[in-house]
């Protein structure tokens, strides 16, 4: 699908504003109008604007998954269209992380334009959003009928900007969205939410340099020793911790249990969205074996986060759930410290987003077993990455 051009129709709504909310998104072939993907979800209690941004994000993620290169986004939310076009400031702190996430997705395509359409021409996405809200409320849900695409219109002059200008706008929107003050300097009147990111201790597969994804491999004796050393380090850095949140796989929960005991028996909370990437047919195989047997597939995987290992999961898919987990942590533990115990891929994705880095970052950053990273996020959207892959506590092992 090289050079694929698509249209995204996205919408979101809340019954109460804020109230029970949901979004819908449709991805169409720009030439034929054929529906290539649909996305919809109930998102709990939220505002209309939050739901509309969530619809945009879902549409952009779906467009990336179908291999789109050029994207025309059509929404009936003037606020989202104007903010994503860089013409309106993003003044609501609650929208800045969502706008930053959308801007990051924009930069993955060759070109993206935004255009406003009236609500009556966005009926398909609106119907998907309402169906998601009805389903969550336990109401009967009628199948959303296939609908004709909104008729094409000549894009506004601003949408015809050259690629370099469009990408500059995306960077500008991301900068606005990440913080009203794009600076690491202290914010005296605000308290950051601190995520202490810990990779689980070593396993036999780690030591053998094998792909280790969804397989539930236990910690080795060395891995347990690493967990104990990390627990002492975390206790010295973060004496007051609200919770330890962990991938449900045993190599993480065992690491998390050691940390929780050292921190005064704080609760360990399993979070399925923090599980490792599903490596499919590569699971349990050495890096060399995968290179020999799946050379072409490996090259494609390394080149694009939308490509998955055979029968596995792409980094784009992992990104969706990891961002969902981080957003939940920010909402649940504002201004507190949370220890997050997870795997290489989810932790790299968290750090990539925190550093506003590109996708090449994922294959250039190395995270040691039991390595430690720290990310602070303020209520105004400011982010400071304080530590990446600290392993000083492992020196004597």
Automatic annotation (TrEMBL):
InterPro entries: His_Pase_superF_clade-1, His_PPase_superfam, PGM_Phosphatase, RNaseH-like_sf, RNaseH/PGlycerate_mutase, RNaseH_domain, RNaseH_sf. Residues 158-181 have a biased composition (Low complexity). Residues 142-186 are annotated as: Disordered. It comes from the Bacteria. Residues 2-142 form the RNase H type-1 domain. Pfam families: His_Phos_1, RVT_3. This is Bifunctional RNase H/acid phosphatase. It comes from Micromonospora sonneratiae. The lineage of its organism: Bacteria, Bacillati, Actinomycetota, Actinomycetes, Micromonosporales.
